[in-house]
């Protein structure tokens, strides 16, 4: 696969900011984002929005960071370090979503702004444990998705956000259109949870063109953090100035390699792993 260019030793690499929740089990959230970004060769800056109590079998609770502290992390990183792209993950509440949207607009992050924003509208873990208060879905629809350069929901999140049950290509296209109508510049419908074919296809839509990104379906139960890994890889490529279709093609190939390298951890779902990159020549 075509990898992102590495910055020579001693020079400052491209920076990407993740605004998300932590995962104490290290499989998803900010841990997956930072690991992905580091192995993509970019410097990860982090704004913590929530701390989850999480392992391979589920999420037993979370603690929200005050919205003004989340916004202050974003502002101080952008003011001093500067970022080429940003990504949101678990934001937990309406108040945090509103604070993040406001500070992103203030500092020039988001669609039609200098710094592109990948929005992974995290609602729940793969175990079904909530990572977003139900009342915050309106803020996801009306405040967060409208500032997305790219939005990357999984099928469960699409059902919650749009009411559309994606079961085939026609419903996937309808969902991509609905997400675009909410204000995202590009929408992705991820096919990871559509287990009806031998391939896993993600659909990308910009209001005009549908583009498909397919990979063979990897037979693994260790897919924790897959959505974060895809979105973080896309953000890393966008920070290098790649177009959205090229960044999504990169992210799709990247997450496929990470699924192939996934490993057992704990009694539940192990993580997808970017550690294959360390063995790549
Ligand atoms: N078994 C699989 N084989 C190949 N690709 C997969 C598989 N499961 C998920 N993917 C890919 O991983 C990425 C994350 O998808 P998904 O699992 O739907 O997200 P999430 O982790 O948010 O639930 C997508 O690019 C999807 O196509
Ligand atoms: C803190 C935190 N953020 C996000 C997730 C969900 O991760 P994601 O990669 O979207 O999907 P799954 O691994 O749950 O399929 C999380 N669990 N924790």
TrEMBL record:
One GO cellular component, as annotated:
cytosol
Pathway named in the protein's UniProt entry: Cofactor biosynthesis; thiamine diphosphate biosynthesis; 4-amino-2-methyl-5-diphosphomethylpyrimidine from 5-amino-1-(5-phospho-D-ribosyl)imidazole: step 3/3
Gene Ontology molecular function terms on file: ATP binding; hydroxymethylpyrimidine kinase activity; phosphomethylpyrimidine kinase activity
Which residue range or ranges hold the Pyridoxamine kinase/Phosphomethylpyrimidine kinase domain? Answer: 23-272
* Keyword flag Nucleotidyltransferase: no
**Highest taxon in the source lineage:** Bacteria
- Catalysed transformations (reactions): 4-amino-5-hydroxymethyl-2-methylpyrimidine + ATP = 4-amino-2-methyl-5-(phosphooxymethyl)pyrimidine + ADP + H(+); 4-amino-2-methyl-5-(phosphooxymethyl)pyrimidine + ATP = 4-amino-2-methyl-5-(diphosphooxymethyl)pyrimidine + ADP
Q: Which SUPFAM superfamilies match?
A: Ribokinase-like (SSF53613)
Any Pfam family from its record, for instance, is Phos_pyr_kin
> Which keywords, in A-to-Z order, does the entry hold?
ATP-binding, Kinase, Nucleotide-binding, Thiamine biosynthesis, Transferase
Q: Look up the record and give one Gene Ontology term from the biological process aspect.
A: thiamine diphosphate biosynthetic process
Tell me, in a sentence or two, what this protein's role is: Catalyzes the phosphorylation of hydroxymethylpyrimidine phosphate (HMP-P) to HMP-PP, and of HMP to HMP-P.
By what name is this protein known? Hydroxymethylpyrimidine/phosphomethylpyrimidine kinase
Q: Which organism is it from?
A: Rhodococcus koreensis
């Amino acid at each position: 696969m075509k990898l992102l260019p590495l910055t020579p030793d001693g020079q400052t690499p491209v920076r990407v900011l993740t605004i998300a929740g932590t995962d104490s089990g290290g499989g998803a959230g900010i841990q997956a984002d930072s690991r992905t970004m580091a192995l993509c060769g970019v410097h990860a800056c982090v704004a913590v929005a929530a701390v989850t109590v999480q392992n391979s079998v589920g999420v037993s609770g979370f603690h929200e960071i005050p919205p003004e502290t989340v916004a202050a992390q974003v502002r101080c990183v952008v003011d001093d370090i500067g970022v080429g792209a940003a990504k949101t993950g678990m934001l937990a509440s309406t108040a945090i979503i509103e604070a993040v949207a406001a500070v992103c607009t203030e500092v020039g992050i988001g669609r039609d702004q200098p710094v592109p924003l990948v929005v992974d509208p995290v609602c729940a873990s793969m175990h079904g444990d909530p990572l977003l208060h139900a009342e915050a879905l309106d803020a996801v629809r009306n405040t967060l998705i409208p500032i997305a350069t790219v939005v990357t929901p999984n099928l469960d999140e699409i059902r919650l956000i749009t009411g559309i049950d994606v079961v085939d290509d026609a419903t996937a296209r309808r969902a991509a259109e609905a997400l675009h109508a909410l204000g995202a510049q590009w929408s992705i419908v991820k096919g990871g949870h559509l287990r009806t074919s031998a391939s896993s296809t993600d659909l990308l839509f910009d209001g005009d063109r549908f583009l498909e990104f397919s990979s063979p379906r990897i037979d693994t139960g260790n897919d924790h953090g897959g959505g974060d890994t895809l979105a973080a890889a896309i953000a890393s490529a966008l920070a290098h100035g790649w177009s959205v279709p090229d960044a999504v093609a990169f992210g799709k190939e990247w997450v496929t390699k990470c699924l192939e390298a996934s490993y057992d951890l704990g009694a539940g779902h192990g993580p997808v792993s970017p550690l294959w990159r360390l063995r790549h020549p």
